[in-house]
C-alpha cells in the first residue's frame, strides 16, 4: 500500500504538510541512490526548513512595503564611480543593525538613494530582520491617522521597536509642528536601540533646514542620527535624466540592429 495518502492527514496534524511537496521526489531519490532512512529523513527536514524560511522571507518582504524589488545585485555602481563599493557591500552585511546605528544617504535626485536604501532593507530581510520602508510623508501620515483613531501609542511603539526603519525623502518637505516633535520622539526612542536608514536630497550640512519651525528639536534629532552613523554620498548622473534616457534608448536600438544583422 502506498503510504503517502495515509501520511497526508498526519503531516497536516503536525503542521508539516509542506513535506508533501517534495515527498514523492525525495522518495524516488532515496530509492535511486539507495539512501539510508536517516539520509532520506534529513533531506525531507531540510526541505521543510527551507520552505518555512522562504515563507518567512516572503512575509517580511511584503510587510516591508518596498516600492519594488530593488536589490544590491541590481544597483548600477558604474554610474557612481566615486562610490566606495566595498563600503556599500560591507553595509549589506547589516553589521550596522547589530551596532544599532544609522545609515545616512545623501545625494541629488535620481542618483539611486531609494534603490540603495531598499537594497539594504532586502539584505536585512534575508538575514531575518523585520524592515519597514516609508517616505517621511508616509511615516508621519501613519502616525496622524493612528492618533485620529486612538491607536497612536501602538503605532509609535511598533515603529520605535522595528529592527530596521528606512525613511526615504527626509527633508523633502519641511517638518512643522506637531510632525517635527513626532519625528524627534521617534528618532530619540530608536536611538542606540535599533537601526535606521535615511535618504535625503539635502546635503548633510543642510539637514537642519528640515526643521524650520524649531531649530532646537532639529539639532537634538540630528545629533542622535549622526552619532556613530555611516554616511554615504551619491554623486553622479540622474537615472531619471531625460538625456540619459535618450542615450540609453539609442544604444539599445543600435545593439538590437547589430543583433539582427
From TrEMBL:
Pfam families: IstB_IS21. GO terms for biological process: DNA replication. Keywords: ATP-binding, Nucleotide-binding. One of its GO terms (molecular function) is ATP binding. Gene3D superfamilies: P-loop containing nucleotide triphosphate hydrolases. SUPFAM superfamilies: P-loop containing nucleoside triphosphate hydrolases. InterPro entries: DNAC/IstB-like, IstB, IstB_ATP-bd, P-loop_NTPase. The keyword Zinc does not apply. NCBIfam families: IS21_help_AAA. This is Mobile element protein. It comes from Caballeronia sordidicola (Burkholderia sordidicola). The lineage of its organism: Bacteria, Pseudomonadati, Pseudomonadota, Betaproteobacteria, Burkholderiales.
Amino acid at each position: 500500500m502506498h503510504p503517502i495518502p495515509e501520511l497526508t492527514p498526519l503531516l497536516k496534524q503536525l503542521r508539516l504538510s509542506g513535506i508533501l511537496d517534495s515527498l514523492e521526489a525525495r522518495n524516488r531519490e532515496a530509492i535511486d541512490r539507495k539512501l539510508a532512512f536517516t539520509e532520506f529523513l534529513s533531506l525531507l527536514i531540510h526541505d521543510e526548513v527551507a520552505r518555512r524560511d522562504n515563507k518567512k522571507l516572503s512575509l517580511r518582504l511584503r510587510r516591508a512595503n518596498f516600492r519594488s524589488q530593488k536589490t544590491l545585485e541590481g544597483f548600477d555602481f558604474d554610474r557612481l564611480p566615486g562610490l566606495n563599493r566595498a563600503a556599500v557591500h560591507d553595509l549589506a552585511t547589516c553589521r550596522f543593525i547589530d551596532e544599532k546605528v544609522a545609515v545616512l544617504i545623501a545625494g541629488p535626485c535620481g542618483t539611486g538613494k531609494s534603490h540603495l536604501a531598499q537594497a539594504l532593507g532586502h539584505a536585512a530581510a534575508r538575514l531575518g530582520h523585520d524592515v519597514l520602508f516609508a517616505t517621511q510623508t508616509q511615516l508621519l501620515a501613519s502616525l496622524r491617522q493612528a492618533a485620529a483613531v486612538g491607536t497612536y501609542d501602538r503605532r509609535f511603539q511598533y515603529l520605535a521597536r522595528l529592527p530596521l526603519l528606512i525613511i526615504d525623502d527626509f527633508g523633502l518637505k519641511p517638518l512643522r509642528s506637531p510632525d517635527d516633535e513626532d519625528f524627534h520622539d521617534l528618532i530619540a526612542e530608536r536611538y542606540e536601540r535599533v537601526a535606521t536608514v535615511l535618504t535625503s536630497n539635502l546635503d548633510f550640512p543642510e539637514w537642519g533646514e528640515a526643521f524650520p519651525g524649531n531649530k532646537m528639536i532639529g539639532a537634538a534629532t540630528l545629533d542622535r542620527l549622526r552619532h556613530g552613523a555611516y554616511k554615504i554620498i551619491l554623486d553622479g548622473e540622474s537615472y531619471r535624466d531625460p538625456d540619459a534616457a535618450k542615450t540609453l534608448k539609442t544604444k539599445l536600438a543600435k545593439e538590437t540592429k547589430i543583433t539582427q544583422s
